[in-house]
Write a sequence for this structure.
């Protein structure tokens, strides 16, 4: 694969939650990311690989190491990772330590992609662009901004990420 | 306004087309962009300003000069312009000549934002990210890619943009 | 087929209009009705048959006769017909004359089914229910009401149907 | 109010469930039914009154009596009740005993109205039509059918209602 390809790793999170009436609850299902990318008419070559299907509050250190391993061992140099927003910054730290030399952009959503009104497609678009335009490092694309992945936190009550902007020029 | 603010100029295009049953035809209406940005939970400061409401096949040189003027005279250094896709590259040339020193990202959509399935939010997300991460210059965010705005063309039949990737690192 | 089955005849209309960027216009496409019925989790047996794909302003008398013929010759006694709203009442007259002894409900939409916000699924639901609960005759389900198909007209400017309520009990 | 008006009583259920990221769970919120009726371009006079916001597994006998009281004391003779699907048939029994002389149609959805793909608008359309076309009694509009409210049950695993069709002609 050329360095033009983008790898998308899916790990779960709200973005992929669906409601199951028979269970009276929401569960993470097979990722809606491929469908979103098709709807977005993405013509750039890409792959989508599922690493796990977890709410990020349930990710263990071993899970984060597995996500980092998938990123490190892939041929692609530009990687988007969809992830639950609650512990996205934790995974960012592990990625920064474990995966040098690649542009990695974490994103997710506060509303499931299956909702009529959702931040999912916009966030995925931000991540896709940042994966192409940012220098190697770990970034987070949420709340309309591209953040340095190590200098941002989630303000859970406000439903937004706050932090330091990237210096990529 | 700080240089963290993003200016969004809307000019029309498919992204803002709506169907009017009483007229048996489509028309470009008040922009759906503000609603899309709200749905995307964008927390970065931004303004949305309508320049015109035209299918890009109907834009005159005077219209493109007006778009460039709005970009040049605004205080913001990071600008997203939503635009019809058919002559987006024409406007890019005028912007490159008329608006130095700013990061300008053109985007649009092949399906109206009002559709259930549309590339509009994803493209807008790409543009928002590119406006923050690309160096000064004119860029086009379409078909899942961020292009150098002067090195890209629209393949109308294929429904995609093809061109040269940006060198922003 | 038992008399529990419902036949859905599709003829075109706004309900099935889609926007084609490459042509800069809306066109009627393969019907979205099967997808709508699947999304609605309809468990009642039904068939969907396309009769034509026309804006109802373009339907000729021969077209209306063909629609009536399809309704008359089908084994089902309960029929829903999706149709452009502009001349729905014309087709209703032909059906009343040509197809005795069946419950036929015409419906359509003022916004294409492909739109995020559309009256299409609600109208289709009204028609499905009326096909089961109304006595033989021709009915029109639009604007939240079930009308006697021969005592209703479309107020184009107001975007609604006005008429006489059904007497089916 | 004339007997042309329709009263919509909302009680909760999946149809009105929304996902709250800050709580990592779903909750029933202010009803989406008014918005759905507006999107459906309903021109018939109607009122929407919230009785409660409960998953139907949590409804008590007192809740069902309260729903019946609201139906009985209203001036309208045609009533739609949106309700969780799990115990819809229980409420139907109470309504049949407590509210004579009115046409009451219960409906709900297996997917929240806020989803991009949902049975909510179709089911609401079925109920609106049945409220106008069925004789006095209690009916259930789900799974594409209008059932006698006392001769139907929910098959939870199959995600559909099964029962006896109405005899309303």
């Amino acid at each position: 694969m050329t360095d033009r390809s983008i790898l998308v790793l899916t790990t779960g999170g709200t973005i992929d939650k669906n409601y199951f009436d028979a269970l009276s609850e929401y569960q993470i299902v097979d990722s809606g990311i491929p469908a979103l990318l098709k709807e977005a008419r993405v013509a750039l070559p890409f792959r989508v690989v599922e690493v796990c299907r977890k709410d990020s509050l349930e990710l263990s250190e071993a899970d984060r190491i597995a996500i980092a391993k998938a990123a490190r061992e892939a041929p692609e140099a530009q990687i988007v990772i969809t992830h639950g927003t609650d512990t996205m910054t934790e995974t960012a730290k592990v990625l920064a330590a474990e995966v040098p030399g690649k542009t990695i952009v974490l994103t997710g959503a506060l509303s499931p992609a299956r909702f009529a009104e959702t931040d999912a497609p916009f966030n995925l678009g931000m991540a896709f662009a940042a994966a192409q335009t940012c220098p190697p490092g770990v970034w987070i694309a949420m709340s309309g901004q591209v953040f340095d992945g190590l200098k941002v936190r989630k303000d859970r009550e406000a439903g937004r990420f706050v932090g330091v902007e990237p210096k990529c020029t």
